[in-house]
């Protein structure tokens, strides 16, 4: 299996709000997300071609946008309902927003905002755990 090189810090900063990563697993996961979001990926090129074809047919275009809106909306709502339960609640919310984001700019903005907020939360959580661990070690 050939692996693509990890994205540069500048590429990661564009996606993750300017932070450089130190944890290897976190860096690898984020690097894979950055690589998957590149517009030159073959599957993304194919999907753009299909979307261009759909947009040339007005009735099909309206039906497509409605279907994307309904499916993405249902998926996002289902994910929000699953958040308090054990399981992939946030993953389903992000998947629903990603589907909505293919057609609606507001959904792309919400998904980017949620990514930043979730990243801020995990940064705060890790710092809190580190403070508690150091306080426990000092005591």
Task: Name a few traits of the molecule.
139 residues; mainly alpha; 6 helices
Question: Any overview of this molecule?
Answer:
With 139 residues, this protein is an all-alpha fold. The protein is 77% helix and 0% strand.
Class per helix and strand makeup: mainly alpha
Query: How many strand units?
Result: 0
The helix fraction, in percent, is: over 70%
Low-confidence stretches: none
Order of secondary-structure elements: HHHHHH
Approximately what portion of the residues adopt beta-strand conformation?
under 5%
Q: For the residues shown, what is the average pLDDT?
A: 82
Roughly how many Å is the radius of gyration?
19 Å
Q: What does the main sheet amount to?
A: none
Shape: elongated
Number of helices in the DSSP assignment: 6
Distance between the termini: 48 Å
Give a brief rundown of this model.
The chain is mostly helical and 139 residues long. It has 6 helices and no strands.
Task: Give the SSE layout.
Elements: H1 9-16, H2 24-36, H3 42-55, H4 58-82, H5 89-101, H6 105-138
């Amino acid at each position: 299996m050939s692996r693509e090189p990890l994205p540069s810090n500048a590429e990661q900063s564009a996606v993750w709000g300017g932070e450089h990563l130190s944890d290897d697993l976190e860096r690898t996961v984020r690097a894979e997300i950055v690589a998957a979001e590149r517009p030159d990926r073959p599957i993304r090129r194919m999907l753009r071609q299909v979307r261009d074809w759909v947009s040339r047919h007005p009735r099909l275009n309206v039906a497509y946008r409605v279907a994307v809106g309904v499916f993405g909306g249902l998926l996002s709502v289902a994910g929000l309902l699953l958040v308090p339960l054990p399981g992939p609640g946030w993953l389903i919310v992000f998947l629903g927003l990603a589907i909505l984001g293919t057609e609606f700019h507001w959904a792309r903005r919400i998904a980017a905002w949620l990514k930043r907020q979730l990243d801020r939360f995990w940064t705060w959580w890790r710092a809190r755990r580190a403070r508690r661990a150091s306080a426990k070690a000092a005591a």
